[in-house]
């Protein structure tokens, strides 16, 4: 009898260990997918399109075209919002850099300390998964060739 109870207890704790392992694996897994901007994931792209429209289009343009004369500093010394389409330089940066700029704004390490910019930090307004989604949407608007070049930049940045 007592042996029986003992083995049952063992089985139960083994079960608990298994469940905990599965939970940890699940968490790791969901983190991995949340940290991706996949222009082929239609659901993520659609989520990003709505976020872009609501939060980004006012400066970066309804069609990702950016503000007029975006290369020229304004009289206040700040730069206008650049396009996110292929005419801009968004695609010159890795996903992680774009994520960092979107989440934290133009602060170190992506800009000099005390750099003055109109680009807001979105980390308090948007969830990380929203930021990855908006980047997926932006990437979905680039040509296959530009996406391939930017994918190469991601690979280099990961080294
Ligand atoms: C109030 C205007 C404004 C809004 C709204 C805005 N941005 Fe910006 N953004 C800027 C400006 C201005 C810059 C360029 C800043 C500089 O270089 O000084 C910029 C730069 C960027 C860059 C860097 C691009 C590059 O090639 O270096 C990214 C990425 C970016 N914005 C993403 C976003 C996203 C995503 C949103 C919406 C969630 C957004 N921005 C909303 C003004 C804005």
Chart the SSEs and their pairings.
Elements: H1 2-34, H2 42-60, H3 95-104, H4 128-140, H5 144-158
Helix pairs in contact: 2-4, 3-4
The structure holds heme C.
Heme C binds near residues 88, 101 and 120.
Structure description:
The protein is an all-alpha fold and 159 residues long. The protein has two domains: 1-34; 38-158, Cytochrome Bc1 Complex, Chain D, domain 2 (Orthogonal Bundle), CATH 1.10.760. It has five helices and no strands. Helix 2 (42-60) crosses helix 4 (128-140) and helix 3 packs across helix 4 (128-140). The longest helix has 33 residues, at 2-34. It is globular. Mean pLDDT is 87; it is low at 21-34. Bound molecules: heme C. Heme C is lined by residues 55-56, 58-60, 79-82, 88-90, 93, 98, 101-102, 106, 117-120, 122, 134. The site of heme C (HEC) has 23 residues, from helix 2 and helix 3.
Mean pLDDT: 87
Major pleated sheet: none
**Percent helix:** 55-70%
Alpha-carbon distance between the termini?
Answer: 59 Å
Overall geometry: globular
- What do we call the CATH topology of the largest domain? Cytochrome Bc1 Complex, Chain D, domain 2
Q: Any low-confidence stretches, pLDDT <50, length ≥5? A: 21-34
Helix count from the secondary structure assignment: 5
Radius of gyration, Cα only, in angstroms?
Answer: 22 Å
Q: Give the tally of structural domains.
A: 2
**Structural class label:** mainly alpha
CATH architecture classification name of the largest domain? Orthogonal Bundle
Which series of helices and strands comes N to C?
HHHHH
CATH-defined superfamily of the largest domain: Cytochrome c-like domain
CATH class of the largest domain: Mainly Alpha
Tally the beta strands.
Answer: 0
User: Which strand-content bin applies to the residues?
Assistant: under 5%
């Amino acid at each position: 009898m007592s042996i029986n109870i003992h083995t049952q207890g063992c089985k139960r704790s083994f079960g608990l260990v298994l469940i905990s392992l599965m939970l940890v694996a699940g968490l790791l897994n969901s983190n991995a997918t949340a940290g991706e901007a996949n222009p082929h994931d239609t659901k993520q792209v659609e989520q990003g399109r709505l976020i872009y429209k609501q939060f980004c289009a006012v400066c970066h343009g309804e069609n990702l075209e950016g503000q007029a004369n975006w290369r020229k500093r304004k009289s206040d010394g700040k730069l206008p919002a650049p396009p996110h389409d292929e005419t801009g330089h968004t695609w010159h940066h890795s996903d992680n850099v774009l994520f960092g700029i979107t989440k934290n704004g133009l602060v170190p390490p992506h800009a000099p300390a005390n750099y003055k910019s109109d680009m807001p930090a979105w980390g308090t307004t948007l969830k990380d998964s929203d930021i990855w989604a908006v980047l997926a949407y932006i990437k979905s608007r680039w040509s296959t060739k530009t996406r391939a070049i930017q994918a190469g930049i991601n690979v280099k940045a990961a080294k």
